Amino acid sequence: MKRIGIAKGRGLDKCIALLGNPEVYKAIMEEDRLHYKDDTMEVVIVRGADLAYAAKNNFIDIAIGSQLLFAENIIHKMQYMGALPISDCRLSLIGKADSTLQDVRIVGTRYPRVTVGKLNKLNLHPEIMELSGCLESWLLNDSCDAIVDVIKTGNTIALYNFKELVRLAPVEHGIWLNNEREDLQTFVSEVRQGKLSKYNLIQ
């Protein structure tokens, strides 16, 4: 039995497609279910913030989601197996339209570990506010000078008249495997390479 956890949100449809199981795709993407199980695999959809917890506590053997999730939460029993052919987002430092890097003293983010590492490389050492969502609100009410978040289209930045101060890194999806489940390595490798996908979703 393959126990697979997938982070909901950006890229979910493409991640499901990579599993190559039409029944899983139908259940989750067309019927809007969060769980699927048959004789060969069990798939559960969780919040990205909970994916590492599920892996750490042995609820899943395979984890699929943004690389940021495991960069924030180091789970030694989970081996990184590689990036998936899904990469349409970026991690950026975002401020108000009139702000500059010199104005950045407090930064709000859901990814404090990654944020500190990226900003230190730019010789920036702001105070970090660890938040769980709705980062734009904290920037709008001046509780922080900038936020570090994932950008896909840039529509939200335009809506609030923010600007991208620095593009910190591309954000890729990855796949991780529990070290105790070596029997699943071939399956994971085929998923990672897109060999099982029956859908025209991977660009």
Characterise the protein shown here:
It is a single chain. By secondary structure, this protein is α/β, with parallel strands linked by helices. The protein has two domains: 2-87 and 172-192, Periplasmic binding protein-like II (D-Maltodextrin-Binding Protein, domain 2, 3-Layer(aba) Sandwich); 89-170, D-Maltodextrin-Binding Protein, domain 2. 30% of the residues lie in helices and 32% in strands. The chain has helices at 12-18, 22-30, 48-56, 67-72, 112-121, 135-140, 155-159, 185-192, and strands at 2-7, 35-37, 41-46, 62-66, 78-83, 89-96, 106-109, 127-130, 146-151, 162-171, 173-178. The strands form two sheets. It has a six-stranded mixed β-sheet. It has a five-stranded mixed β-sheet with strand order 8-7-9-6-10. Mean pLDDT is 91; it is low at 199-203.
Could you name the CATH topology of the largest domain? D-Maltodextrin-Binding Protein, domain 2
Integer-rounded radius of gyration: 18 Å
Give the class from helix and strand content and strand pairing.
alpha/beta
The coarse silhouette is elongated
Q: Alpha-carbon distance between the termini?
A: 29 Å
Q: What's the overall average pLDDT, rounded? A: 91
The biggest beta sheet is recorded as: 6 strands, mixed
The helix/strand order is EHHEEHEHEEEHEHEHEEH
> What CATH first level of the largest domain would be assigned?
Alpha Beta
Stretches with pLDDT under 50, minimum 5 residues:
199-203
User: How many separate domains?
Assistant: 2
CATH architecture of the largest domain: 3-Layer(aba) Sandwich
**What proportion of the residues is helical, as a percent range?**
25-40%
Please give the count of helices.
8
